[in-house]
Amino acid sequence: MDQRVELRHLRYFLAVADELHFGRAAERLHIAQPALSQQIRQLEKLIGVELFTRTSRSVRLTDAGTAFRPRARDLLGRLAADLHEAGRVGRGEAGRLDIGYISSAVVILSERLRAFARRRPDVHVKLHDGFTVDVLASLEHGTIDVGIVRDAGERDDMDLLPLASERFVAVVPADHPVAGRERVEAGDLAADPLILFPRAYGPHAFDVNTAPLREAGVDVQVAQECSNWHTIIMFVATGLGVTIAPYSVTNRLPDGARRLELAGRPTESHIQMATRRSDDRPLVEAFLGRR
Amino acid sequence: MDQRVELRHLRYFLAVADELHFGRAAERLHIAQPALSQQIRQLEKLIGVELFTRTSRSVRLTDAGTAFRPRARDLLGRLAADLHEAGRVGRGEAGRLDIGYISSAVVILSERLRAFARRRPDVHVKLHDGFTVDVLASLEHGTIDVGIVRDAGERDDMDLLPLASERFVAVVPADHPVAGRERVEAGDLAADPLILFPRAYGPHAFDVNTAPLREAGVDVQVAQECSNWHTIIMFVATGLGVTIAPYSVTNRLPDGARRLELAGRPTESHIQMATRRSDDRPLVEAFLGRR
DNA sequence: CGTGATCGATAAGCTGTGCCGATGGATCAG
DNA sequence: CTGATCCATCGGCACAGCTTATCGATCACG
């Protein structure tokens, strides 16, 4: 029974309910009075109920009309708001953005988020943490819209925008023979057990950043895998082995650990913002800073 | 921008959003595919935002479309519910009924309410207590739809349906000379101070029910007005005077008061249900028991 | 790398319906 | 009784929305 009801009916109904006068209501709607009478009759027929009691001298709302009026008004208000909201979402002024990130990028991410929230206060950002592989997979799958990753390899389905770069440095126990030095040769670490992030969690990053070790003839055998930088640093501090790590995660070392520059060709590790290449949605563009 | 949006647009939008295929959606809507394409385009133009990204091989929702979909669905659902509800109100199956009543009619009112609530569980009844004059005025004014009153005079703008009738009886202090008798002549009360309901709260009831006193030659001078039957009875019990009262309010007398039949022509007091004569709304008819 | 199938957009013409102006009928004031 | 007011009804018309036919783009397949 409601299939043929249209918003026109509701708009006309509200006008008549406001004016309680078909002539004036029609005028307000910029139509002639007969057209209005017709449409109201039609609406009543569609609902199966009289909405007004009319005599040739007066128009009054029935109980049904009285009950329906606030609902109709509310409905039209909602629709207007929803259409407006849809427009804002379309223009990237509002909406939801799902961002995946790696934990060692929280600082740079939070800076970006703060600036973005100021520019787009009505955008709800949902965060998903994970390792670089997870973030890239989620991005590919569509679970997230933007990924913050470290040293992702070149991919033809994604755009990678460098956000920051930092050196990898060595971290050794304080009682290690080289602990007092400013810098260390990669070869000096050859004898020590290596504690590293699992390669599976970021194969390209692993390969790139361990390259100096391999070039120095070190056989990169991981003695202990650990997927949390802070835990890795603690392992080093307690003498379990040595590691190489992004500079930023070595800022506040515990007492038992020492940071040393790696001699030779420095390895730059890049934190990157990844998006799907086909994805040109305004919200994503906005987060990238393109508008 | 939303003036020309119609429900048709929303229905079509939802069909395409469900199917993600213009051909199938058109089929579901029983229209041809070009018509659907046109209407969707038109909606997009009205909102100012693309709702779908279409290639010749695939149709996907944009962010704006994704955001709009649940809202559009909700809107159509609400409308259907509201139309249904309006229909029920029109048929008197739901809605709100305002009932005015006098306190001495609570028993008979509560019986009626219980029966009515069983027949019309979705009708919300709002009660307004007052004196007969107030109830009649509210009814005339439209604040209430039904009034329960006592001995309203004939009125050409109202229908009065008798619900119950009862005698007026005398109530005297237990130490009154006539207290031991079964019945009393009106004249026997002539010497005692009269405690009565204010005439203004129900002039016709007052005149009708004090008529036997006047006919017996009693000069009806109200020594003490009181607008609460239980208080009046208490006054009598403490020896302040005598009263005549509807039988039903003398059912549980305090120790100091005695009830006596009034001799002579018995006065029948009527509890009546009053409605506006022009009021033929189904809910009112239903409460009257006419359907 | 052509070929057919799929699918949405576009074009052109038709049709239903929503609107208009004119008129009717009921009610009320004076 | 007369004129004014106001909603309903009637007949005609214009246009919005629908139809069929066709195009162009994309993809699967041999």
> What would the CATH topology of the largest domain in chain A be?
D-Maltodextrin-Binding Protein, domain 2
SSE arrangement of chain A, N to C: HHHEEHEHEHEEEEHEHEEEH
Oligomerization: homodimer
**Low-confidence stretches of chain A at least 5 residues in length (pLDDT < 50)?**
none
**In CATH terms, what is the architecture of the largest domain in chain A?**
3-Layer(aba) Sandwich
N- and C-termini, Cα separation of chain A: 48 Å
Structural class per helix/strand content of chain A? Answer: alpha/beta
Give a short account of the largest sheet of chain A: 8 strands, mixed
Whole-number average pLDDT of chain A?
93
Q: What number of structural domains do the residues of chain A give?
A: 3
Helix content of chain A: 40-55%
DSSP summary, beta strand count of chain A: 12
Instruction: State the CATH class of the largest domain in chain A.
Output: Alpha Beta
Radius of gyration of chain A: 33 Å
Approximately what portion of the residues of chain A adopt beta-strand conformation?
A: 15-25%
Quickly count the helices of chain A: 9
Give the overall shape of chain A, derived from the CA principal axes.
rod-shaped
Report the largest inter-chain contact: A-B, 37 and 37 residues
Q: Looking at this structure, what is the CATH superfamily of the largest domain in chain A?
A: Periplasmic binding protein-like II
Pfam family, one (chains A, B): LysR_substrate
Organism (chains A, B): Nocardiopsis endophytica
Family (chains A, B): Belongs to the LysR transcriptional regulatory family.
Protein name (chains A, B): LysR substrate-binding domain-containing protein
